[in-house]
Amino acid sequence: MENPKIYGAITGIMADVGAIGKDSVNEKQRFRYRGIDAVMNALQPAFIKHGVFVYPEILEHIREERDNATGTTHLIYSVIKVAYHFTALDGSEVVVTVIGEGMDTGDKATNKALSIA
Questions:
Q1: CB atoms within 10 A of CB 36
Q2: Distance (Å, rounded) from C-alpha 84 to C-alpha 39?
Q3: Per-residue model confidence as pLDDT tens digits over 78-113
Q4: pTM of the predicted model as reported, rounded to 2 decimal places
Q5: 3-class SS at 42?
Q6: For 22-66, what is each residue's pLDDT tens digit?
């Protein structure tokens, strides 16, 4: 494809959004993090402006059941390999592959892994 639009669109998005700060705080483990809602809220207007949409493709999913260190809590541990397709209106795209891990005592391990990815 000659002169694909995706490259200019991505640089435009980067210029519009800038850095997204680690403004959320995990009080229990005392660390700052960049929340998924903050990321999505910052990116969405720039994606619309530059005509880019993103869709995930799950390439691998590993799910294990574990006990915590003391054996008192049952955990679900999920690891996923995700290809994110950043696609412009002309059909050009950039694909980025990442790994995400998540752990939960209930039904959210895969959701957490996807958020991290």
A1: 14
A2: 15
A3: 999 999 999 999 999 999 999 999 988 888 888 888
A4: 0.81
A5: helix
A6: 888 988 888 898 888 999 999 999 999 999 999 999 999 999 988
pLDDT of residue 78: 93
Distance CA 6, CA 105 (A): 40
d(CA 117, CA 115): 5
Start-to-end CA span in the chain (Å): 29
* Torsions phi, psi for 70 (to 5 deg): -95, -5
Name residue 80's beta-bridge partners: 61, 100
Q: Find where tokens 């955990």 sit.
A: 75
Rounded Cα gap, residues 66 and 113, in angstroms: 16
Closest CA relative to residue 63, chosen from 75, 48, 51:
75
Kindly state the tokens that stand for 43. 């990116």
CB atoms within 10 A of CB 33: 12
Residues paired with residue 106 on neighbouring β-strands, in sequence order: none
| Secondary structure of residue 16 in the 3-state scheme | helix
Measured in residues, the chain has a length of: 117
- The encoded tokens of residue 62 equal 């590993």
